[in-house]
Amino acid sequence: MARLVMKFGGTSVADLERIRRVARLVNAEVQAGHQVAVVVSAMAGKTNELVAWTDGSGAAAQGLAASDDEYDVVVASGEQVSAGLLAMTLRNMGTPARSWMGWQIPIIADDSHGRARIDEIQPEKLGAAMDAGEVAVIAGFQGVTRDGRIATLGRGGSDTSAVAIAAALGCGCDIYTDVDGVYTTDPRIESKARKLAKISYEEMLEMASLGAKVLQTRSVELAMAYGVPVRVLSSFVEPGEAPGQGTIVCDEEEIVEKRIVSGVAYSRDEAKISLFGLPDHPGVSSTIFGALADANVNVDMIVQSKARTADTANMEFTVGKRDAQRAVDIVRSVQPSVGFEDVQVNDDVAKVSVIGVGMRSHTGVAKSMFQALADKGVNIQVISTSEIKISVLIDAAYTELAVRALHAAYGLDQL
User: Fold this and answer.
1) Residues 81-100: pLDDT tens digits?
2) Structure-derived torsion over alpha carbons of residues 18, 19, 23, 25, reported in degrees to the nearest 10
3) What CA–CA distance (Å, rounded) separates 226 from 194?
């Protein structure tokens, strides 16, 4: 019998009625002859509530370690509730099932509490239970450190749990969410957005990292590294209602006709840091970005230009909006050793990106992008590129206009 991992997000298990629908979808796969493992998130809104409780409890007293490990104990409990409720519902339908916590499998993770990474999964006990005909209902988002403490995998970590378990079991992974696949852009912004039948791992990785909320970035990295076939589906259907639905995330070679651009992504979670009057000599950038890296501040777009004063330069880079003030404080802390003149922050910006594996073999992609934005009067502040994407930083007020203009410029509404 073929194995299958199914994953359901928070909106899919938001209440008992939705959990019953999930159980029907799971039972349909069991009836079709699959050995099934199900990974579940916490009920919609529950993790936010739990995080708020931990915030309300305050910080550890001076001289005591921060409570990141206890934070994980609290926020991981939401998935435990979902797993238990789904296992009970399946049993009520006559389907053998049991819940599994991350430590019971076990899913071994490092001790970076709140953002842990999976080191190893030991699937023998899980596989034996599935071989015996039992549906394994697994609490996503959580693992266990080597010294036996619960560790959570960061927001969206249930996607990572599901793909990692599929890799360990050597099977495919169906990720059910509140959309019926991966779209060329956000349908809430562009009504002409089209659902993609297939998308490459690389394109999905770029889209996830550039603002698309369908899959967590780490889950796509794992799928690509281990060749796990992933399918994105809607959980808001009954079994058999939408045959052939969803989007398959796969190797590029499995896509016969490669589009020049597959999608347009955007992120409003951006802040631009500008440094003025930097000494233009070796070691300056290393000092600045070394300090940011040591503080775990992730830097994205970077551009440096000559200043009007001789032997000086100006620099701009982007960070996540939540890290903006911390980034400014860190940069100011190295100001005495670096000697720049001033630093400014602007968090009223957005990043808009076009992504497609076809960029490797086609010219003129950047020209089309810049022309489409110019025609709409959208000014570009910063540009960054990779082999399969071009990103621009613009004023946040123009985000939706830019997304719609680029979607039309590459003919994505004609797919």
Assistant:
1) 999 999 999 999 999 999 99
2) 30
3) 28
